[in-house]
Amino acid sequence: MLRALAKYVLYSLLLWAACLSSASAESTLEQLLDGLKITRVSEFRYTETREMKLLNRPGLARGKLYVSPHRMVIEQTTPKQSVILIAANRLQYQEPARGIYFVKKLNNLLAAPGIGSFLGLLQAKMPLDQLQTQFLIEVEQQGGAWKIILIPRKQVDISRMEISGLVGRSADLLKLDYADGDVTTWALSLVAEGAAAREGLDAQLKLAEALTRPESSAER
């Protein structure tokens, strides 16, 4: 369970970035990465596909995603209901129907293996040249579409990251290849931004607070 949670922390944080990225025609690498910086509240529908070596067929999950500069909520509706809240250095996971609730301390997000430097760039705490010392970075732009590929120079859990979208829009695909052969892909569809998205985010935060049961929580 903890290993699966660690993976979820990694690609949840990358998803946080991907949802807020956009690009203009023939953007430079610096312009593309600058578009990843977290600046607004947005609501997305998502379909997550997990390909695992131990499974004969991909696993599918669907739901809504709320992101802001300071918080992210993943509300999964199928195949099971769950809520993940990431705020500051804390991840909270809930499955209300099964009475499951626990908290994971994230410590320093910038120390996250394999993606800490990438997160530092998103938070304007790391220059591009430092990012390039830790990743091989490729940029592809063709026919109104853009793609950023990041490959860690050192061996870590994630072997390849791919974020892509259409010019002038938020990213619509995040793909993560793991060193163990697993692959996770998120297909994204923007629902709302600004005040309308904030209403949805606030509603989810209130729900998460109402579902919190401190007497049964476990800090790990």
- Estimated radius of gyration: 17 Å
Count of strand segments = 11
Low-pLDDT residue intervals, each spanning 5 or more residues: 214-220
What's the CATH H-level superfamily name? Lipoprotein localisation LolA/LolB/LppX
Give me the CATH fold name: outer membrane lipoprotein receptor (LolB), chain A
The H-and-E topology, N to C, reads as HHEEEEEEHHEEEEEH
Second rung of CATH, namely the architecture = Clam
Arithmetic mean of pLDDT: 75
Tell me the strand percentage band. 35-45%
Alpha-carbon distance between the termini? 12 Å
- Percent in helix: 10-25%
For the largest beta-sheet, the strand count, sense and barrel status come to: 11 strands, antiparallel
What is the name of the CATH class?
Answer: Mainly Beta
Q: What does this protein look like?
A:
With 220 residues, this protein is an alpha+beta fold. It has helices spanning 2-18, 29-34, 116-122, 128-134, 195-211, and strands at residues 42-51, 59-67, 71-78, 82-87, 90-95, 100-105, 135-142, 145-152, 158-166, 171-178, 183-193. The protein is globular.
